[in-house]
Specification:
Structural class: alpha/beta
Strand content: 15-25%
Number of strands: 23
Distance between the termini: 34 Å
Strand order of the largest sheet: 3-2-6-7-1-8
Shape: elongated
Radius of gyration: 42 Å
Length: 823
């Protein structure tokens, strides 16, 4: 078990070449060396800068490895030598550099990761244009393609990232003074890549990227220490979208606020009320506004909440927002008077240390586009209804008494009935009953003879009172049912909108369990959302627990959810449960696929053994049977030929059986290795014994490799045999070797048909004979076994096209011994 402490990575990040990254990196190495640390320079490129070269004095430098590639000579970091030296700190320049092909790793950052895994601290440097996520952005700015990149995640994992910054004009002066490039390159650089605009844009990219990294570290610190209050270290602007056309104005205003501070974040949020009162928002407007937010570099969010203002503030606090942008109310004065406190007032009252901006727009004060609270029996309507049931009939009585004689009794009764219907529409059944009793009594007393007296014993009066009550109750019932249906429809629409948003997240690729949990936390404004697996639901105070499948529960911590939101939460939990089940089924399918692959392997093996072993077995058996026969007298020549046939057949059987055994050992992971220093001269005679006409080149001064001699012999024999089998008649197989970058490459070259463009990935699969229709030449195990044995010896085996036609198999193995260089 490897218990080596991984090394720590420090990255010097610059906006452009020449800002001083290498100088600062070497200065850091000198400081550490002065404090007693064991520091070596693995690779540094000074570009002929005297001040930078002077910083190498006193530092141990590991000589570079010399590589030959396509007729050119190159120098690379000798990773093997640095690993053998095992310093405490290694300085490695040009983090994104691509190594010469054929080396241990294709990228220098992969070399650095090996050093870190070995416990070596690494100091390195990289420019912003080499980060993979910004590569295309930099190319658009500078119009210069960047071929070498390093994944952002590799740089983000660094324990320290230090920005090396310089003003564009200062960098241009350094360039003009010849401190960056050679004099003959200065004019072209200043006129192209090093233009002031380019350098300013690159500098901004570097500052913003580092700011993002600092923000991640700060959020992690706040989470670990439970800090919930807003720290105004970076502007995060939340804009509330009501779902109307004014959302475009709000988004652009919020974007301008965010742009005032470099690196500000823009978050747009739409609150879907679980009680359905926020329905009526235009889905087309929200979809358009979502695209607008994303075009402006922001992000769109949707949350559920009974109270829009409270949900907005909770979301803003969860996202550590510093500013909240809302539109002014669309309600008129009467609506504001009757409707009570609005969303803006609620947000201002709850915002605390979050700044609130109320933005005017073209819809302000023009009435509600969305259904208001008055679409249901709010507190205002429940109070206004009974009052209207008492007051309106009295007012109508005063009005009719003033124009007595103008209307007959029938018209007066109809006017009272109309008043009762109006009150029923306002306040429901209770208000309708109060209005009907009041209206019938006033009609009886003031307008039915004898006027000024109640005649309740009169049949007409009783009928009028009954009709008033029946009509009022009927109208109130219809209104109440309509409101209930409207409320139910609104709730269903709100839930459908929320689930549609969730489905959109899944379609866009966010269907992983962590993504669904984060979506759930965000939608309901909770502090955290976790998936736990227990037989019984967790019994904790202050948490909301919902079943998410057999033995799985969705646990949310934060505010207490009302029952109206739990229904939507149950649907979210069902999606999470489905994701868990899909993950489980995917794992099961992967296991089944392994079983199926093994079954296909066994089937192919039985078919191959039944067919391909038959020929050598039959030939050997026939030869031995003939030799044992007493009925035939064989001459010496015939006897020798039969013995040779038997020997060849048995040797072929032996090779096939050995390949099968090796393949089974490789698949079972029980192959025993005896790695030691092995020279090619040691294994080639036996490997090439049965294969004539092999031209061997360039073996002089090839160092020993770390390998198992019998296995290496088998690998070379298989490769050469495969090449000979596919070479044209009279064609010769060539075996050549070369050494560079701590490894030996053995190339087996043939002039056969080569590999087809399709199916190349199957060349190393067992029982594959790509382009070979001759089933008498073996089981198709040679390359599969060769690749497995090579990788077991820490080597690589890759195919290449032979120039002019044919196939070249490149076998690469590490040196057996490393020379430790020091200065």
């Amino acid at each position: 078990m490897n218990d080596v402490r991984p090394g720590r990575l420090k990255v010097y990040l610059g906006a452009a070449p020449g800002v001083g990254k290498t100088y600062r990196m070497l200065d850091e190495g000198r400081r550490r060396a002065s404090r007693g640390a064991d520091v070596v320079v693995g690779f540094v490129e000074c570009h002929g800068r005297p001040r930078t070269e002077a910083m190498l004095d006193g530092l141990e430098v590991v000589p570079r490895a010399h590589c030959d590639y396509r007729g050119g000579k190159f120098q690379e970091m000798d990773l093997a030598a640095v690993l053998a030296r095992r310093p405490q700190v290694a300085i490695v320049d040009e983090f994104a550099h691509s190594n010469v092909p054929g080396g241990r790793n294709s990228k220098r950052w992969q070399d650095v990761e090996e050093l870190l895994a070995a416990g070596v601290d690494v100091i390195t440097a990289v420019n912003i244009q080499h980060l993979a996520s910004l590569n295309d952005v930099v190319e658009k700015i500078t119009r210069v393609p960047q071929g070498e990149t390093v994944p952002d995640e590799v740089v983000r994992r660094a324990q320290q990232i230090e920005l090396v910054d310089m003003e564009p004009e200062g960098l241009r002066r350094r360039m003009a003074h010849g401190n960056i490039y050679a004099p003959e390159k200065v004019d072209a650089a200043l006129a192209n890549y090093f233009r002031p605009g380019n350098l300013t844009a690159l500098r901004q990219l570097a500052l913003l990227w580092v700011a993002d990294r600092v923000d991640e570290a700060l959020q992690m610190y706040r989470t670990e220490h439970g800090i919930g209050r807003v720290w105004e270290t970076r502007e995060r602007v939340v804009v509330a979208l009501p779902g109307g056309p004014e959302g475009d104005t709000l988004i652009r205003r919020a974007a301008r606020i965010a742009d005032r501070s470099a690196g500000g974040d823009l978050l747009a949020v739409h609150v879907t009320r679980s009680d359905g009162l926020a329905v009526g928002a235009s889905h087309a407007s929200l979809a358009r506004q979502r695209r607008l937010v994303e075009d402006l570099g922001g992000s769109y969010h949707s949350v559920v909440g009974d109270d829009v203002g409270t949900a907005l503030v909770e979301f803003a606090r969860a996202e550590h927002a510093t500013q909240l942008v809302l539109g002014t109310s669309r309600r008129g004065r009467i609506e504001r008077f009757l409707g009570g406190r609005g969303t803006g007032e609620t947000v201002v009252g709850l915002s605390g240390d979050i700044d609130v901006h109320m933005v005017t727009h073209e819809r302000a004060g023009r009435g509600m586009l969305l259904p208001s609270r008055r679409r249901t029996l709010s507190l205002v309507r429940r109070v206004a209804g009974p009052v209207a049931g008492l007051v309106l009939p009295v007012l109508l009585t005063v009005l009719l008494d003033g124009v007595r004689g103008t209307f007959d009794l029938t018209s007066e009764a109809l006017l009272f009935l109309l008043t009762v219907v109006g009150v029923a529409c306002i306040g429901g059944v209770t208000s309708a009953v109060i209005a009907s009793v009041t209206a019938s009594l006033l009609l009886n007393y003031w307008f039915i003879p004898p006027i000024g007296a109640f005649t309740l014993d009169n049949a007409d009066a009783l009928v009028a009172l009954g009709v008033f009550a029946i009509v009022a109750a009927t109208v109130a019932g219809v209104v109440d049912r309509s409101l209930r249906l409207s409320r139910r429809s609104a709730r269903a629409t709100a839930e459908a909108e929320t689930m549609s948003s969730l489905a959109g997240t899944i379609v866009r690729g966010g269907a992983t369990i962590p993504a669904l949990l984060e979506r759930t936390r965000e939608t309901f404004g909770m502090e955290s959302a976790d998936l736990v697996h227990h037989e019984q639901p967790p019994d904790e105070e202050g948490v909301t627990v919902v079943a998410a499948g057999p033995g799985a529960f969705l646990v949310l911590r934060g505010r207490t959810l009302p029952s109206s939101e739990r229904r939507v939460l149950a649907a979210f939990a069902a999606h999470v449960g489905s994701a868990v089940e899909r993950a489980r089924l995917a794992e099961a399918a992967a296991e089944i696929e392994l079983v199926k692959a093994a079954d296909r392997m066994r089937t192919a093996l039985l078919r191959a053994v039944g067919h391909d072993l038959r020929t050598p077995l039959a030939a050997g058996w026939a030869a031995v049977t003939s030799l044992r026969s007493r009925d035939v007298e064989f001459s010496d020549e015939d006897r020798d030929e039969l013995l040779a046939t038997a020997d060849e057949s048995l040797a072929k059987l032996n090779r096939l059986v050995e390949n099968l055994l090796d393949l089974s050992r490789l698949q079972a992971g029980v192959l025993t290795l005896d790695l030691r220093a092995t020279t090619l001269e040691e294994v080639l005679p036996a490997a090439l014994a049965d294969i004539p006409d092999v031209e061997v080149r360039d073996l002089a001064e090839i160092p020993a490799v770390l390998a198992d001699p019998p296995l290496l012999e088998r690998v070379i024999a298989n490769l050469v045999g495969n090449a000979a089998r596919h070479s044209p008649p009279g064609g010769q197989v060539v075996l050549a070797a070369s050494a560079h970058a701590g490894r030996v490459e053995v190339r087996v070259v043939d002039r056969g048909p080569g590999l087809p463009r399709t199916g190349r990935d199957r060349i190393f699969e067992p029982f594959q004979r790509l382009g070979d229709t001759d089933n008498t030449t073996g089981l198709g195990l040679g390359l599969a076994v060769s690749k497995g044995l090579t990788e077991a010896m820490d080597g690589t085996l890759v195919p290449e096209d032979t120039p002019g036609g044919g196939l070249t198999m490149v076998l690469s193995l590490p040196f057996a011994e490393r020379t430790v260089y020091s200065r």
